[in-house]
Specification:
The complex is a heterodimer. By secondary structure, chain A is mainly α. Helices cover about 55% and strands about 10% of the residues of chain A. In chain B, helix 1 runs antiparallel to helix 2. Classes of the chains: A mainly alpha, B mainly alpha.
Chain lengths: ~180, ~120
């Protein structure tokens, strides 16, 4: 029942965002509100077992979504811009020392690992190639490994990220 | 007037990074380093081009035209979120498939994943 309600609420929110500006009740017309309600109930009936597969309702807390939005706009975007300029420099000069290293972030939930792997992949210069599903360690392809750092068996997050520590932020969001 | 400048700057940054992404595909040596250039820098460039569209829509809303430009901005924002997630997932899938089919990173100073698989 909780899974049904969470899925219906989420689908209705997405429908509201997509149809913003259609009428006069708030931003929506009466027809769109009714259609959105009916469609989100149908969607929830079909897909509730896929959407809430783990039986874990942590992410239903709106505060976590607020932190996620803040994380995406400030720390993630600044780190991404910094790394982009770095990669642009490497495109022009061709100075690269690539390699695949093992990173141990110490995250426990699936959603947390997904967020971290996507953040790493979206940051230029680092690319998630594989995941160890038992220990949640990530195999990260880095475009420039510091001199001598390749001898380390296990990389810490601070060896990979320069300005912000993503795993700490993601722990706040997903755990 | 200020909005026009912001739109021009966003478009300029976006085009610059997309062009650098193309240049990176030509210059980098193997599939992984090329993925760095082609997926990441182009995502960053496209984010700025989308921001230019959102700013344009927002200025038109302030001038009093709501419905059409509101949905333009909102839909561009949703496209941005979808782009960020699908681009990361796609890059990961390509890299994983390349490594599983035996494409070793070359040149590379270290390859921990290959050591584990052996």
């Amino acid at each position: 029942m909780i899974a049904f309600l969470v899925t219906a609420g989420f689908a209705f929110l997405i429908y509201l965002v997509l149809t913003a500006g259609s009428g006069t009740i708030g931003l929506w017309s009466q027809v769109e509100l009714i259609a959105g309600g009916v469609i989100s109930l149908i969607v929830a009936a079909i897909s509730r077992n896929y959407f809430c597969r783990m039986g874990d309702y942590r992410m239903a807390n709106p505060l976590r979504w607020v932190i996620l939005g803040f994380y995406a706009v400030i720390p993630f975007f600044i780190e991404m811009a910094h790394a982009n300029i770095d990669v642009a420099y490497r495109v022009i000069t061709g100075r690269i020392r690539p390699g695949i290293v093992k990173l141990s972030p110490g995250l426990k939930t699936d959603f947390g690992v997904l967020l971290l792997a996507n953040s790493i992949t979206l940051t230029p210069g680092t690319l998630t190639v594989g995941i160890d599903e038992e220990t949640n360690d990530l195999y990260v392809h880095m475009i420039n490994i510091g001199m001598g750092a390749e001898k380390k068996e296990l990389f810490e997050p601070k060896d990979v990220f320069s300005l912000f520590q993503f795993p700490e932020w993601i722990r706040r969001i997903a755990e | 007037m200020i909005a026009d400048t912001i739109i021009m700057v966003c478009l300029g940054i976006g085009l610059l990074f997309n062009a650098l992404g193309v240049l990176g595909i030509l210059r980098f040596p193997d599939v992984y380093t090329r993925l760095h250039a082609e997926t990441k820098t182009t995502t960053f460039g496209t984010i700025f081009i989308s921001l230019a569209v959102i700013v344009y829509g927002a200025t038109r809303i302030m001038q009093g035209e709501t419905a059409m430009y509101l949905s333009l901005s909102v839909h561009t924002f949703i496209a941005l979120v979808a782009l960020a997630f699908t681009n990361a997932t796609g890059a990961h899938a390509i890299a994983r498939a390349a490594h599983r089919s035996g494409q070793v990173p070359k040149p590379a100073v270290v390859d921990r994943l290959q050591e584990v698989r052996e």
